[in-house]
Amino acid sequence: GQQLNQSPQSMFIQEGEDVSMNCTSSSIFNTWLWYKQDPGEGPVLLIALYKAGELTSNGRLTAQFGITRKDSFLNISASIPSDVGIYFCAGQLGHSGYALNFGKGTSLLVTP
Amino acid sequence: KAGVTQTPRYLIKTRGQQVTLSCSPISGHRSVSWYQQTPGQGLQFLFEYFSETQRNKGNFPGRFSGRQFSNSRSEMNVSTLELGDSALYLCASSAGADTQYFGPGTRLTVL
Question: Best of B24, B99, B102, B108 to disrupt the A interface by mutation (most A CBs within 10 Å)?
């Protein structure tokens, strides 16, 4: 599978700040997904995007499916300490199965 | 609905042994995928099963295999374990052309 380019690799911010991370690929995808993973646990789905240009929110989280279908970004507004974790983007073609291609993750640390 | 469950949660094996991991998908989900997560390589797709048939396979050696049963439960097997097989093995289930939901994973340590 193809590895997606996710940036930044890590972020260290203060509580209340906004956060932005993005993911790019050399190939197009039909679905973009954003997951959060806590230590020792499996990734938890945050937001799913199914159409190019789509902008979707989930509470303080907002994500967009890039118009070229080769990128996506995730914004977290007014960060809180429980936002700490590793955030992964994942792209899926979905034509003949549901294999996900993942980015390497963005590690987020939030100080009170 | 109960989430994806994986057993065991932790496993310690020695080189050369084989191991079988189990995954029970969310009720009604027919697609089960397996991923390997390591610090160096990140999350990598192993294979996907749908209605007892392997539909996709990632770039892993033949020592990694899997199967799916008629109740959608899935197992993956790794034979002749190597030190580099130490990883968190994650199972994900899906209802269709939709999102995938992950289990907590099985932490495999090969000594």
Answer: B99
